[in-house]
Design brief:
It contains ten helices and twelve strands. By secondary structure, the protein is an alpha/beta fold. Strands 3, 4, 5, 6, 9, 10, 11 and 12 form an eight-stranded mixed sheet that branches. Strands 1-2 form a two-stranded antiparallel sheet. Strands 7-8 form a two-stranded parallel sheet.
């Protein structure tokens, strides 16, 4: 189904005359008839009653006329909105690591296809709070950051939830576990990211261990993910990471789920400054993410 077919249908439905529509679109009458027949075939129903020289809408045709008008109105509104978006500048997007393993590649493809003239600058941040600071100070137009409390002048939307799992060496004594449970925690050594990478998640982890009456034994704090995975593969320690890291296909490690009642998620939010000049563009990005469910990895 094409927009041109809808416009042709609306014209025929309103004029009840193929000749007038053909004249309006500078097409032949057989071409107009072909468009209508193709639309009827795709919908699986007749849109018009054809009785000798009289043309009238069927019940289905009347219903479809209302919907077709809505689609065309939305199309025109979107086009007008796109025309108002400036594409002669660089749009800066900051992101945290798990974004690149989940939704960010598809999102950047969408931007390139929808706004081909828009220049995009992507910046990877290991420090969640620094990323938000850059956004608040206007050095970023959009930020994908880990869950945390944000400034009053930042608006946000939840984009992605990544289930936290245990990552360990295939040679670990716990490698055959089907589920990680609290009783396993005291016997493990942990390789963790620095707190500034994801303060909220680190606090959740240490608070949980404190509730169990435990203090996790930390081997080291290390960035980036690839470095932690390499140490885990050598059985230096275990990781608590988002399961989307499986996409890196790191040899020598296994991903073990955590007991359901202990399960937690690393959440990534999209943040923007509502007072900046890119409001129209941001609204398109919000609509893009609204069109799909929150991505759970």
């Amino acid at each position: 189904m094409e927009f041109k077919q809808l416009e042709v249908f609306i014209s025929v439905a309103e004029n009840l005359n193929f000749s007038k529509t053909a004249e309006y679109f500078s097409l032949t009458q057989p071409t107009i008839s072909k468009n209508i027949k193709a639309l009827e075939h795709e919908l699986g129903t007749n849109l018009f009653e054809r009785n000798k020289n009289q043309l009238s809408l069927t019940f289905e045709g009347k219903l479809f006329l209302q919907e077709a008008k809505k689609i065309i109105q939305i199309s025109h509104k979107m086009k007008n909105s796109l025309d108002e978006i400036p594409t002669d500048r660089t749009f800066r997007i900051g992101f945290v690591a798990l974004s690149i393993y989940s939704f960010l590649p598809a999102f950047t493809t969408y931007i390139q296809q929808t706004f081909p003239d828009l220049k995009i600058k992507l910046e990877w941040y290991y420090d969640n709070l620094l990323l938000l600071k850059q956004l608040q100070e206007g050095h970023m137009d959009l930020a994908f950051y880990y869950e945390t409390n944000v400034s009053y002048n930042i608006e946000s939307r939840l984009i992605n939830e990544d289930e936290v799992v245990l990552v360990q060496s295939v040679n670990s004594p716990f490698a055959d576990l089907e589920l990680m449970k609290p009783e396993h925690a005291p016997h493990m050594k942990y390789i963790l990211p620095p707190r500034e990478a994801n303060p909220y998640m680190m606090d959740v982890l240490f608070n949980r261990y404190e509730a169990w009456g435990l203090t996790p034994e930390v081997v080291c704090y290390l960035q980036p993910h690839q470095a932690r995975l390499a140490l885990a593969a050598e059985n230096t320690g275990v990781l608590l990471e988002g399961q989307s890291l499986q996409k890196l296909h790191t040899p020598g490690v296994v991903f073990t789920p955590i007991q359901k009642d202990l399960q937690t998620f690393i959440r990534v939010f999209m943040g923007w400054n509502p007072y900046q000049k890119n409001t129209k563009l941001i609204q398109h990005f919000i609509a893009y993410f609204d069109s799909m469910p929150i991505n759970q990895v």
